[in-house]
Design brief:
Structural class of chain A: mainly alpha
Helix content of chain A: 55-70%
Largest sheet of chain A: 3 strands, mixed
Number of helices of chain A: 20
Oligomer: homodimer
Shape of chain A: globular
Strand content of chain A: under 5%
Distance between the termini of chain A: 64 Å
Strand order of the largest sheet of chain A: 1-3-2
Order of helices and strands of chain A: HHHHHHHHHEEEHHHHHHHHHHH
Largest interface: A-B, 35 and 35 residues
């Protein structure tokens, strides 16, 4: 049994080594690669991904895993959980033939190129057929891998293991019932003045400020670094090499600042996973929702809070004395929390954001269950923006074509963004109870207790507990939208004074 | 036959994809990696190298290669050469057991750490045992893989395929007979004034100047980039992504400039290899000696020549008007070509350089054939420096511990540096005949004819011709030290006026 488990660990670690190399090839592509390198780079990534796939589907590894799974009660609890998760992944992988994987990869590649063309031309019709292909192959995948209650769950499970459509329906019904109304109340108040953000902020100074904020959060530059890329992201090549990227827009100071904090939150999670569990589920993040809870907690609950800026605003003023002359930290705090509906998800404030996700969730689910078709889907999209955000979408580029996710084949991914914010609110509420002086510490720039709490409560467990188990262990209950609404009401009633 | 060859190509290209990933992991380690990433990085490189090794030693590939080799006369000439080379590599690889490879890897790893420790303490005795291990295992390798005339050739062949001890002996006898004497003549002349180099040159400006020089050489930044690293090197991840690194020392302007040009020469070779032969010998450099001929030709024959600086000195003056005030291009040319013996190889001028290599060659060969032992080898080293360069070595750090090569297990590598310079002189002599206005073009900053000539004569052939075949095709004879001596005499008699 011990030898079998060790054999399993060996294969998993080799696969993780390959994953680290793939992540580096991908990071380099975004950060450094000269443009002519693209074609060979894609081929190299495909080769390594193919080798990892073969290694994990190798008959000997499969048999070993099956035997370990049969005898899993002889393992200790952490080992058992690893075997259960790896067995589940193996089952899913085994159900997808090489032919299917190749057809899917082709459909996605087509969709990606059609999406680029369509977005450039602001014309959904150039993308529709390719999107249909992607939807059809993802539907086929649902049937191949199987599901309990709803086919969409077969996709969702890849990103948020164990999540259910019924649970998401409840959450988004709460969003509709409570958040729509609350945003209307905000819209009826006197609006905040955000002129301070509508200025040019020197790029080099932004960069230096971002690095300093990452350091203040507790991000260790001996185990990571920040670089520039067109879209910010976090990646890891090893438990001790977790990197973030950002982008800098002179005219959108906030774009850099909160991407630093957001990606920093992701990175702190990866850096807090137990090193000795490298390559195993127990050393890997549990779900995208929990991952996003870590980025959102830092970005919103901490990074857009008044206590955080009470400490950090003086540093910002050192960098930008002219731009921030006469601005109080309270003025700044209000400006960075302006709430208003935008057609673009990534430019949204933290409240309207969830309408964007709800719309995508409704559409995805409809496409997979067959209640919606890709015909006229741009019109469906626009109508929902009108209904939920009161916005008229001007063209497909700022409408259905704004996100790349579906073109990448990522259907079932979007809901994890909202789950992240909701988990963040619930966790942060608990952290305030567990760390009595938390807010005062944040005001003093002391983030260590919070980071330690997150490491103990979330990071160190890897996937040993499911997202739901983790939430129950930490907060005593499953995910509950109430905490997000409480957070939102307290914060925004203060800002908008009602 | 066609299917068999295609199958062979497929395996070779997959192996090249893995090599590209390994090169990126290694490049990133030198250029970007946060320090805590080191341990996992080594493990990842080892995993990928192991997978490549297994793939190339896979039974099916081996049988396929054997069959292709038997029937190689049915292939066209380029295919035949590919099969011959790959078959030779496969034979060598097959003779080394996994146990041997692991012992070697362990010996090298030990030696590396001992070398670091010994160098820090300037004490050869801390390194001696580990070096003995490396020498012994490399001797064992010679016996395992076999050789024709001299065991050292079994090692040399890895870096300079087909090279013979007899040939190297002749070359270094020429060095001893002609270059020692010539350097003595130079030492007897009035020395040049190199004060212009003994100033601080702003690092950022050095960096910008280096990039501009690379562009002027014809290096395409759409297929490469330059970064900083502790030791300059060139690497390629794909035929369309070939990168160089440099280092900048404020007080050694030349260190950056000629490393840019040197690495740029290596990079132009890699970028000139035929893309469509990716992963095959026909798409790979033929030998380290020929590779080095490309870097040295640009670095020395072009980059330390008066015509080159007649064009580029005005640019340098734009960057450093204060530092170069009142300095003529002729003054500058003399300063950068100052000849004097140094204990350190990498700080040597282009003449004394070959004494450094000769000493290493004599010692390596002696160790492998058994005429020298590691006992008291530092004394042997110091005596040779006294004899050939007239220098007293102060301590082991500036003596036998200065180079990392042996600690990496690279025995048989050093001679390729001298071969590179000698090939460069012979090739450049021919280029001047083939391109009647070459020198005038270089004076005008037009490097295109030279680059085209190198591409046609050297780069495009990959390994289709051996180094010796290539030399004969280009110059009508095998490597001949005469061309280097002619070049040296003409240049340095001019500079030292005798």
């Amino acid at each position: 049994m011990k030898t079998k488990y060790e054999e399993y660990v060996k294969v998993m670690r080799k696969a993780a080594d390959i994953s680290g190399a793939i992540s580096l090839l991908s990071w380099d592509k975004e950060v450094n690669m000269p443009k002519n390198g693209a074609a060979f780079r894609s081929q190299q990534v495909a080769t390594l991904a193919g080798m990892r796939h073969e290694m994990l589907l190798d008959a000997r590894h499969g048999i070993n895993l099956k035997m370990l799974y049969s005898d899993r009660n002889l393992l200790d609890s952490k080992e058992r959980k690893n075997i259960e998760i790896s067995h589940k992944h193996h089952e899913r992988r085994s159900k997808l033939s090489t032919d299917f994987v190749m057809r899917q990869s082709k459909a996605v590649s087509n969709a990606y190129h059609s999406w680029i063309e369509a977005k450039k031309n602001k014309d959904y019709s150039l993308y529709k057929d390719a999107l249909t292909e992607v939807v059809n192959i993802r539907k086929e995948e649902c049937e191949l891998v199987g599901y309990e209650d709803h086919p969409y769950e077969a996709l969702l499970d890849q990103y948020e293991p164990g999540a259910k459509v019924a649970q998401l329906d409840t959450l988004f019904n709460d969003v509709k019932a409570q958040l729509v109304d609350f945003c209307k109340q905000i819209a009826a108040q006197k609006q905040v003045n955000a002129d301070v953000l509508a200025q040019a902020y020197d790029k080099d100074k932004q960069w230096d400020f971002g690095l300093e904020i990452l350091k203040r959060m507790g991000y260790d530059f001996n185990s990571g670094r920040q670089d520039l890329s067109p879209h910010p992201f976090t990646t890891h090549f090893a438990p001790t090499d977790v990197r973030v990227t950002t982008r800098i827009d002179e005219n959108h100071f906030g774009s850099m600042t909160w991407s630093c904090i957001h990606e920093g939150g992701h990175a702190l999670y990866e850096l807090g996973l137990p090193q000795e569990e490298y390559g195993l589920p127990s050393g890997s993040s549990v779900s995208l929702g929990i991952h996003e809870s870590q980025s959102r907690l830092w970005e919103n609950n901490v990074g857009r809070s008044l206590p955080f800026w009470k400490h950090n605003f003086s540093l910002l003023k050192e960098f930008f004395p002219k731009e921030l002359k006469g601005i109080s930290v309270e003025d700044f705090y209000k400006a960075i929390n302006q709430v208003y509906p935008s057609p673009i998800r990534v430019e949204s404030d933290e409240l309207y954001y969830h309408f964007h996700i709800m719309i995508r969730y409704e559409i995805e689910k409809g496409l997979i269950e067959g209640s919606l078709s890709t015909d006229g889907l741009n019109e469906v999209w626009n109508q929902k923006y009108k209904d939920y955000l009161g916005i008229d979408i001007q063209n497909d580029a700022e409408g259905i074509l704004q996100d790349i996710h579906w073109a990448y084949g990522s259907i079932g991914y979007f809901p994890t963004y909202s789950l992240g914010s909701f988990y963040a609110a619930q966790f942060f509420n608990q952290a305030k109870k567990d760390i009595p002086n938390l807010i005062q510490e944040i005001e003093k720039g002391e983030n260590q207790s919070l980071l330690t709490w997150l490491r103990e409560q979330v990071h160190q467990h890897g996937s040993t507990y499911s997202a739901d188990e983790l939430c129950n262990r930490i907060t005593g209950e499953s995910l509950n939208f109430k905490y997000f609404m409480d957070y939102a009401k307290e914060k925004y009633k203060g800002i908008y004074q009602f």
